[in-house]
Backbone:
């Protein structure tokens, strides 16, 4: 039965309960870790949000920068070792504290720091920094960069005197031969025969990435130097980044033209001048919470190179936590987890993303089934167009070509709902979602999560944030170093659990963070390494409790009263007076 369940496409693994899938997954991760001798070392990190993000991304880029997922195997580590500046220790408790701190930094609603420095020294396969694109667009595209030749052994490499030639929005679109085979004129006459041949190779690849703008983007890419173009053709990652860069330029230009149409008296501005003067910063927060509070979805913004790379690094952090059997308190929306797992995102996933709009659509479906359903829907005057939130890019987008003129009826209602869901949950943030998923599989093998559902992945990654005291009691053992009688120790334990039971949710999370380095409990006993414990030290009403998060152990003096125990414990968890030995 087990062998049958391991066959590709088998449904049997999905029918197992979470405990079975968890054990199999954790054993797989343990095997991966034990097969490696290399450690990932993050040294002298700072607690400051901006510094922590920059240092983390820079180190991850240095480690994974040359990874090409379609060629190389995932980059696996035996351990992740973390040290903080001016703080002692480098054990597993420090690593857990790091995962908690970086998650808080990533989910913060503050602006992003400048992330351009995170790419220094890495082999940049993402493109060019967004600010560099904006600064350099003022350079004339008619001044092609000179090519320089350098050799290494028997190999010849080409490079440009500038970093690269900038894409030209005004480039003539490329039309494939199949689109004009019966015409009297050749629309690609402006291209050499060689470039026309390259266009035939390039167009279908771009069409598979972005069908709507394939001709325009192909024309833009055909203007860059041939050696660079051949390099782009040979790398799917590089091609995708170039397509995204071209889309940024097209989108910006189209928005600019739309804004200028309403001002007939103004002189039409030259695109180069506009781009020289604009001060676009792609530094909005990386995540936003559209539905249930506390659950987040990526916010790709302008899709700049630094921002997309940030999402890739976040994916790598997710992969590392799963591989290392650690929790990451980065609570992602259900459809984001499904996207990472490669599972189909459906209409009912909208209920988790935007419960209000989902309920409105559900009522719409019910109304469509009534006798006067057609008239009811027509009165609502819905069209195949979607108004996006600021976090989704703003403005309105047609869900079909000419969608502003296509009214929703009972016959096309389900097509409308399908396209609406697909756009809001996937297409509006697609580049960020893809980078997130790619980052996860920079670390993990492609097939290791095939049997997992979104709920399974959430439990493995986030654990259980709602701390159940009974569960915590079942996990915890007590060690006595006080040399007091058993009756006094039993009373002390009862005091302790009584205080924990009366804590609010946030206080319990603070306690568990103080105790283990993570604000949540693993989904099961399998997730603990090791199980939590409490050491009762000799009587002392003057000192606070301490903790060794590396071994999930609390050290509590045998206080003389329950009141003192409660006061000292709350004071300790708020001051985070723990140690990483």
Residues:
């Amino acid at each position: 039965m087990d062998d049958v369940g391991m066959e590709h496409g088998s449904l049997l693994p999905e029918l197992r309960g979470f405990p079975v899938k968890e054990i199999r997954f954790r054993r797989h991760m343990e095997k991966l870790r034990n097969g490696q001798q290399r450690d990932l070392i993050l040294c002298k990190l700072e607690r400051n949000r901006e510094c922590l993000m920059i240092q983390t991304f820079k180190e991850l880029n240095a480690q994974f920068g040359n990874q090409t997922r379609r060629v190389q195997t995932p980059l696996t580590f035996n351990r992740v070792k973390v040290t903080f500046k001016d703080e002692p220790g480098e054990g597993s408790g420090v690593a857990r504290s790091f995962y908690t701190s970086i998650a808080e930094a990533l989910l913060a609603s503050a602006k992003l720091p400048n992330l351009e420095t995170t790419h220094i020294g890495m082999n940049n396969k993402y493109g060019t920094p967004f600010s560099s694109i904006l600064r350099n667009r003022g350079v004339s595209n008619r001044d092609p960069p000179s090519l320089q030749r350098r050799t290494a052994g028997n190999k010849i490499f080409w490079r440009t005197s500038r970093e690269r030639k900038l894409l030209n929005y005004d480039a003539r679109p490329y039309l494939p031969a199949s689109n004009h085979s019966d015409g009297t004129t050749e629309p690609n006459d402006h291209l050499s025969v060689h470039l026309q041949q390259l266009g035939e190779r390039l167009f279908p690849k771009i069409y598979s990435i972005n069908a709507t703008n394939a001709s325009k983007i192909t024309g833009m890419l055909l203007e860059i130097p041939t050696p660079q173009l051949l390099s782009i053709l040979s790398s799917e990652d590089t091609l995708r980044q170039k397509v995204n860069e071209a889309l940024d330029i097209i989108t910006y230009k189209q928005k600019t033209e739309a804004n200028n149409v309403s001002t007939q008296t103004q002189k039409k501005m030259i695109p180069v001048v506009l781009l020289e003067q604009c001060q676009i910063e792609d530094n909005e927060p990386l995540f936003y919470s559209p539905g249930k509070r506390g659950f987040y979805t990526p916010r790709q913004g302008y899709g700049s190179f630094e921002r997309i790379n940030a999402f890739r690094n976040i994916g790598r952090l997710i992969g590392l936590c799963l591989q290392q059997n650690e929790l990451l308190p980065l609570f992602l929306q259900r459809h984001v987890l499904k996207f990472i797992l490669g599972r189909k995102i459906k209409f009912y996933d909208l209920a988790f993303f935007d419960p209000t709009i989902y309920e409105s659509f559900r009522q719409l479906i019910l109304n469509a089934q009534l006798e006067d359903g057609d008239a009811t829907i027509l009165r609502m005057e819905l069209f195949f167009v979607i108004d996006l939130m600021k976090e989704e890019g703003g403005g309105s987008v047609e869900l079909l070509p000419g969608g502003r003129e296509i009214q929703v009826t009972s016959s096309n209602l389900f097509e409308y709902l399908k396209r609406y869901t697909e756009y809001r949950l996937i297409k509006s943030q697609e580049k960020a979602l893809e980078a997130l998923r790619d980052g996860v599989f920079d670390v993990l093998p492609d097939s290791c999560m095939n049997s997992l559902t979104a709920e399974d992945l959430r439990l493995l990654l986030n654990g259980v944030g709602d701390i159940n005291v009974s569960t915590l009691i079942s996990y915890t053992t007590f060690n006595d170093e006080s040399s007091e009688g058993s009756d006094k120790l039993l009373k002390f334990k009862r005091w302790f659990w009584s205080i924990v039971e009366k804590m609010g949710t946030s206080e319990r999370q603070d306690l568990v963070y103080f105790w283990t380095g993570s604000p949540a409990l693993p989904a099961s006993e399998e997730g603990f390494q090791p199980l939590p414990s409490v050491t009762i030290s000799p009587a002392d009403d003057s000192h606070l409790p301490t903790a060794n998060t590396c071994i999930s152990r609390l050290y509590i003096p045998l206080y003389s009263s329950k009141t003192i125990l409660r006061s000292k414990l709350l004071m300790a968890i708020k001051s985070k007076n723990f140690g990483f030995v």
User: Anything to note?
Assistant: Residues 1-9, 122-128, 130-164, 262-279 have pLDDT under 50 and may be disordered. The CA atoms of residues 126 and 326 lie 29 Å apart.
